[in-house]
User: What shape does this take?
Amino acid sequence: MIDLTTLPLYLTAVVALLLVPGPDMLLIASSSLSYGKRVGLFASLGNATSGLVLTVLAAMGVSALIAMNPLALEALRFLGGAYLLKMGWDCLRTTPADSPTVGGQGGLARALFRRAVVSNLLNPKALIFFVLFLPQFVSSQIEASSGEQMLALGLLLNIMGLAFNLLLVVLAGTLGRPLLNNPSFRANQNKFMGCIFIVLAIWLLISQLPQV
Assistant: This one.
């Protein structure tokens, strides 16, 4: 369901996009640094889950309809920014006693999974990305419909993105291991993540949306 003549260009474009720092990379790297590889893994899986949802919406044409509605995009921007600000505030108001223990990281991992899913789905730039990027590689030279091609292209993008994010988790988790053994950092790791969420909220709220 992918035109093999355009596949090398598509793969090159995807790799280039993955290497550009963005909110997802910041969230996954910071969660891996702060809480370890397991939590970073769940954040990566949450990001991949939202990517699959956006892929299906793009293939069905739903994302294009939303992206062409400025009010819908602004509503998504506001909701996404408000959600990230709330997560940041919740983290900042925690006490050192609330820092996760090794045994309590299962709940934290699930929470980061949900946060990664919701924050990406409420990011209008992610939705517009699927509307603007995937159709460029839809070919009229093969029998598959445009929807089928966008689904295949989106799945390939998500697989490559997950692989890249898992590598990021390993690197950041390894670098962050000394921090996890530092009592001072462990006492303030939730506040560190709170600052990250607030930075992501500001990033979303002040960034310009591309035109569809």
The chain has a mean pLDDT of 86. DSSP finds ten helices and no strands in the chain.
